[in-house]
UniProtKB/TrEMBL annotation:
Catalyzes the reduction of dTDP-6-deoxy-L-lyxo-4-hexulose to yield dTDP-L-rhamnose. PANTHER family: DTDP-4-DEHYDRORHAMNOSE REDUCTASE, METHIONINE ADENOSYLTRANSFERASE 2 SUBUNIT BETA. Its cofactor is Mg(2+). It is an enzyme of class 1 (oxidoreductase). Belongs to the dTDP-4-dehydrorhamnose reductase family. This is dTDP-4-dehydrorhamnose reductase. Pathway: Carbohydrate biosynthesis; dTDP-L-rhamnose biosynthesis. It catalyses: dTDP-beta-L-rhamnose + NADP(+) = dTDP-4-dehydro-beta-L-rhamnose + NADPH + H(+). The lineage of its organism: Bacteria, Pseudomonadati, Pseudomonadota, Gammaproteobacteria, Cellvibrionales. It comes from Zhongshania guokunii. Keywords: NADP, Oxidoreductase. The keyword Oxidoreductase applies.
C-alpha cells in the first residue's frame, strides 16, 4: 500500500480575523500549510488556485475568506455574492476535481431567529439580510458541487484580530461614559482561536481517515457554550476588561431594544447554535468564550 500524502492545508482569507488565528495555530501545532490572502489570490481565481493545489500537493482547503460587513452587504449585494457565493462555488469545484476536503465557514445569520431553542444543523434556514442570504447561497453551492465538505456555521466571532464586537466595545469604553446595546438579540459568542483549533482538529481527523468510512462530512455548528444577548456580551467584556485593568472605568451599558438601534440589515432575534453534533462526531468541545475573553484581556 502506498503512503498517504502528508497533510498540507491551504488557508484562504489568511489576513482576516479567523485566518490569522488559523495561521497562529498551524504554526504552534507545526502543521504544514500555505496561507493565501486576498493579495496573493482571489478565491475566484481558479487558474491560480488550481496550479497552487497541484504544485504544493494540498490535501485540504480551509476557506476563511468572506465578505463580512453585515450592514454594508445591503447596499453591495453583488460584491457580497461574489465573495460569499461565487468564491465557495469555485472552491467546491476544486475540492471535487482534486478529491480533497473543503472546510468552509458559515454563519448563524442563515437563520431567521424565530426559534426559542438552540438551532441544530437540520433546522430550516431563512436569512433576514443580504449577508446571511449570500452565505446561505455559498453553503448551497458547496453542497451541490463537492462531496468532501465541512460547512462549519459559527457565530458572534471575536479575537485580538480584525474588526469585531469585542474590539468595538473596548474602543467605545474609552470614548464614552454611556452606551446603549441591544438586549433582545441572543446568540453564542465564539473565540476565533477556538474555531481555528476546531477546524484543524477536523482536518486532521479527516486526513487520518482519508477514504475510510469514518469521514463525516456535511454541516456542523460550532459556537460558544453559553448564549447571551449583545448587551450581556458587552457587560461580560467590560467586567473582564475592568478586572484586568484594561479599562479604568466601566461605562454604563443601557439595555436597549433592537428598534432603538436602527441598522440597514435586520439581524436574527435568536441565533443560538447547538454545538452538540460536532462534539459527538469529532470530540471538539464548544467554545468557552468567557475563559477566552479572560485570556485575551490578560
Ligand atoms: N466575524 C464574525 O462575527 C463571524 C464570521 N463568520 C464567518 O467566519 C469566516 C471568517 O470571518 P472573519 O475572519 O471574521 O472575517 P474577516 O472579514 O475578518 O476576514 C475575511 C477575509 O477574507 C478576505 N477576502 C474577502 N474577499 C476575498 C476574495 N474575493 N478572495 C480572497 N480573500 C477575500 C478579506 O480580505 P480583505 O480584508 O482584503 O477584504 C479578509 O481578509 C467567514 O466565513 C464569516 O462569514 C461566521 C459567524 C460570525
Ligand atoms: C456597536 C453597537 C452595536 N449594537 C448592536 C447592533 C447589532 O444588533 C449588534 C451586533 O453589532 P455588530 O454590527 O458589531 O455585529 P454584527 O456585524 O451583526 O456581527 C455579526 O457578524 C457577522 C459577520 C456574523 O456572521 C454574525 O455571527 C455576527 O457576529 O449589536 C448596539 O446595540 N450598540 C452598539 O454600540
Amino acid at each position: 500500500m502506498s503512503e498517504p500524502h502528508a497533510m498540507h492545508l491551504l488557508v484562504t482569507g489568511a489576513n482576516g480575523q479567523l485566518g490569522q488565528c488559523l495561521a497562529d495555530q498551524l504554526r504552534v501545532q507545526n502543521i504544514t500549510h500555505t496561507l493565501l490572502s486576498r493579495e496573493d489570490a482571489d478565491i475566484n481565481d481558479t487558474v491560480v488556485l488550481e496550479k497552487l493545489i497541484a504544485d504544493k500537493g494540498i490535501t485540504a482547503i480551509i476557506n476563511a475568506a468572506a465578505y463580512t460587513a453585515v450592514d454594508r452587504a445591503e447596499s453591495e449585494p453583488g460584491l457580497a455574492k461574489r465573495v460569499n457565493e461565487d468564491g465557495p462555488l469555485a472552491l467546491a469545484k476544486l475540492s471535487a476535481r482534486f478529491d480533497i476536503p473543503l472546510l468552509h465557514v458559515s454563519t448563524d445569520y442563515v437563520f431567521d431567529g424565530t426559534k426559542i431553542t438552540p438551532y441544530e444543523e437540520s433546522d430550516a434556514t431563512g436569512p433576514t439580510g443580504m449577508y446571511g442570504q449570500t452565505k446561505l447561497a455559498g453553503e448551497q453551492a458547496i453542497s451541490r458541487h463537492a462531496t468532501k465538505y465541512i460547512i462549519m456555521r459559527t457565530a458572534w466571532v471575536f479575537s485580538e484580530y480584525g474588526n469585531n464586537f469585542f474590539k468595538t466595545m473596548l474602543r467605545l469604553a474609552k470614548e464614552r461614559d454611556t452606551l446603549g446595546v441591544v438586549a433582545d438579540q441572543f446568540g453564542c459568542p465564539t473565540y476565533a482561536g477556538d474555531i481555528a483549533k476546531a477546524l484543524i482538529a477536523i482536518a486532521s481527523q479527516l486526513h487520518s481517515s482519508a477514504g475510510g468510512n469514518e469521514a463525516r462530512y456535511g454541516i456542523y455548528h460550532y459556537a460558544g457554550v453559553e448564549a447571551v444577548s449583545w448587551h450581556g456580551f458587552a457587560e461580560a467584556i467590560f467586567e473582564q476588561a475592568h478586572k484586568q485593568g484594561v479599562i479604568t472605568r466601566r461605562p454604563t451599558v443601557n439595555a436597549i431594544a433592537t428598534d432603538a438601534y436602527p441598522t440597514p440589515a435586520k439581524r436574527p432575534t435568536y441565533s443560538v447554535l447547538s454545538s452538540a453534533k460536532l462534539a459527538q462526531d469529532y470530540g471538539v468541545p464548544a467554545s468557552e468564550w468567557r475563559l477566552a475573553l479572560e485570556g485575551l484581556l490578560r
